[in-house]
């Protein structure tokens, strides 16, 4: 059981590391955010099964993470249509 917790924490920390390193591309930031959500979901499932709780909160968590992902993708599409790429440096053209 402890190996799953260690794997979940290592995946969470690696997602945060990728999020902080790849801050120039919006697509890579969104992918790392989804990876962080996936590791948090795995950690939540482990905690709920370990404490013998119901899994209804996990359904709410998954639906909120899906909504976050769809909003991020819509922002990505809007940014690519207006500026041509997903670099954050392309915003400097506006100023």
TrEMBL record:
GO molecular function (one): oxidoreductase activity, acting on NAD(P)H
Any single GO BP term: ATP synthesis coupled electron transport
Catalyzed reaction equations: a ubiquinone + NADH + 5 H(+)(in) = a ubiquinol + NAD(+) + 4 H(+)(out)
Cellular component GO terms held in the UniProt record: mitochondrial inner membrane; NADH dehydrogenase complex
Similarity annotation: Belongs to the complex I subunit 4L family.
Keyword Glycosyltransferase: no
InterPro entries to which the protein is assigned, alphabetical: NADH_UbQ_OxRdtase_chain4L/K, NUOK/Mnh_C1-like
Keyword Translocase applies: yes
Recorded topology in the membrane: Multi-pass membrane protein
Protein name as annotated: NADH-ubiquinone oxidoreductase chain 4L
Main location: mitochondrion
Xref: Gene3D superfamilies: 1.10.287.3510
